[in-house]
Each structure stands twice: as structure tokens, then as C-alpha cells.
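Need the bound structure for iron/sulfur cluster, inputs here:
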Amino acid sequence: MISITVNGRVCACEEGEYLLDVAERNGMLIPHLCYHRGLLPIGACRVCIVEVIERGRSKVVASCVYPVRDGIEVHTASPRIREQRSVIIALLLSLAPGSTEIKRLALQLGADIPRLVKAPESDTCVLCGRCTAACEALGTGAIAKVGRGVTKKIAAPFDGMPPDCIGCGSCAHVCPTGTIAYEHTDESVSVWGREFELMRCTGCNAPLMTREQHDFLTRKGGESPELLCERCGKQGVARKLKTRERYLG
Amino acid sequence: MDHSTHIEEIARRYPAERRFSLAILQDIQREFNYIPAEALPIVAARLDTPQAHLYALATFYKSLSLVPKGKHVVKLCDGTACHMRGAGNLLGSLSRQLRLDADGRTDDGQFSVELVNCLGSCALAPVMVVGEAYYGKVSLEQLPTLVDSYREGGENDE
Ligand code: SF4
Ligand code: FES
Ligand code: FES
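Answer from helper R.:
Posting the output first, comments after.
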């Protein structure tokens, strides 16, 4: 166990934990965009910057990917941080002025919106990397950050349709800017230019998951998962328990 | 040996683990002078890694290329020192002499020109590298002879 101080408050933590997690656990929320609970930290957007003072020196770091060290002193909302953070969020907002998540952050952080934001025709990707992290974690890693510098973008190989995509839609679900086109009907899902047929719950016939998703889970889990929606699945378990009780009783 | 078998053979030089992606792509680049599109699915299957991961590597590293590089790869330094000493003019002159296309290549496959960042020889700026040979303090005047020496039949065309 080590301890650090955040905004004057002493917080106990483990060496190597990320600063943002420690602060949140102690009730001090740090604004963030690319950081998403349940995904590995990405460290792309810089909204979560804080000031760290270590051995008399102060520096600005991205708290979501900054491993804590014993004795550091952290300020999450110093004047310097407030100023820099508000510029960062205003720049992000200028790329995606329609994004509710970014707009909310910008308002909350008092960003000088009119000065920096010129309304573009449509929202663009802010390269936060949530989509690729979600795809790695829940899907197959079918899309990636491609290229570098000003030409960097989220794409599939050769800008085509991603061959490894299973149509789970995790990417579109976590995207703060709505720039990933995802549509679904009762029968199918379309994303990244591909269309996926939906399989149905064997209990109630509700659309459940794409065939490719089912294949993927089968491959991953070593056996094919039952085609049951959450409700029918629970009912099945309850029924089983009941019959067993009868046996035991 | 056709491309696929050759690529397969290169991929098998390394253990089937994702961390060898870059090493394999580098070997493919060396053998073919580029990463053929068909390499992606083959390497991906071998390493059990998504094709997007390989594509990201291939587009990130300057040393990897998805289109065939020229027989002679010309690296023109555009780092700060070389930039100040006229790398831009050299590039302009090179592309006129060689009639480079938008990707910096000649259509006979002899040359491809790329801009690189500081080559660590700033005192010799502007610096140009052809294949493995370094040229320092390159002047506009000497460019035509230098380029000619690498053309087919020239003294530097091995
Ligand atoms: S597509 Fe959306 S989730 Fe992916 S990097 Fe862009 S803004 Fe972030
Ligand atoms: S939330 Fe930390 S860099 Fe985006
Ligand atoms: S800038 Fe060209 S060698 Fe350093």
C-alpha cells in the first residue's frame, strides 16, 4: 500500500494503479472522454489531464494512463489544468459539435465554445479509440487505427469491409460522436458496410445475435452457446432448479 | 514458388504469436519490396490475429509499404536542418527529373522517393540516401548526374 494526495486529500492505493481510478474511488471525479469503464485505458483524448507534483517538480499528465507512485501530490482542477482542459475539449467539440457527450463536457468545463468552434457540415471522428478498444475486448479487433499523423483514421484493411467483423456493434455503441454507421432491423444488422443476419432465441424468437457472433463465441468458448435470450435463459434455469427441488424434497 | 506459398514460408520462420507480426511484415517487405494484399489474410491466419492489426502496422511504419517500392529507394531527409537547407527544392527537382507519380514512384519501377525525418547527419544537410548510400550537402546541380548513375545501366545500378 502506498499513499498519494489528491486535491489535498490523502488516498491509499496500490503501486501502479491508474491515477484516475484512485481519484474516482475517493470521490474525486476527473472529466474524461476516451476512458470508458470496462475497456483498457487508451490515453488518446487528453481530457483527463491533471497536475502531478513529484519531488518539487510539477507536470501535466493524462490521469487515465498514469500509474501512481508513492507520495505524489495531485491537483485535478488547478487553474493551469482548467485552462488547458477547456481548450482541449473545445477543440474536440469543434470536430464533433453534435456529440452530446462532448457538448456536455464542454459546458461543464466552461470551454470557450464560440471562439473555437466553427460549425462543420457534420460530426467527425475524434480518434478517441474507444471503438477499436471495444472491438478488441468484445469482438475480434476487426477495425484499427490506420495510418499516422494527420491521415490517421479508424478503418478496416484497405479501407474496405472488415473481414473479421462479426457485427456485434460494440464499436458504434461506445462511440461518442456517432460516426460509425450502424443499423439494425428485426432480421439483420449492418455495420462497416456489411450486413449480418440475426439468429433468434429458441424460446421466444426474439432477435439475438448475428450468425458470425455465434460462431465467434463458439470458437472462443469451445462449445456453442445456447440460443436463448436473457429472459428465456433465466426461465430455463428457474425451471431446472424447480425440478431439482422436487427431487430433493 | 508463388506468392502465397512464399509468404506462408516467411510467416513460418517465426513462432505463431502476435508479437511477431512486425518481424514477419518486415521480412515480407524485404523479399517482395512491398506487402502484397494477399499477405494479410495469410499472416493473420498463421498468427491468429486480426487483419486490421497487420494493416495498421503496415500503414504506420514508413519502412513498410503496401505498394511496390522502386528498385532504388531514395530517402530525402526533410528534418529541420535539411528542410531549412532546401530539401523542398531537391524534392521538386527529383520529381520533375524522375516524373514521379503521386505516390513518389516512377512507372518503370526503378525509383521511389520518400521524405524522411532527421537522419542524424544534420551537419551534412541536406542529406539524401539512395539504397544504402548516403549523400551529404546535396546540391540541385549534382542531382541529375546522381540520379543518372542509378538509372538502368548507370554505374550505381547493380
Ligand atoms: S469512430 Fe467514434 S469511437 Fe471510434 S475513434 Fe472515432 S470518435 Fe472514437
Ligand atoms: S480519458 Fe484519459 S486521455 Fe482520454
Ligand atoms: S535534418 Fe536531415 S539529417 Fe538531420
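Comments: The two ends of chain A are 50 Å apart (CA to CA). Chain A touches chain B through 16 residues (CB under 8 Å).
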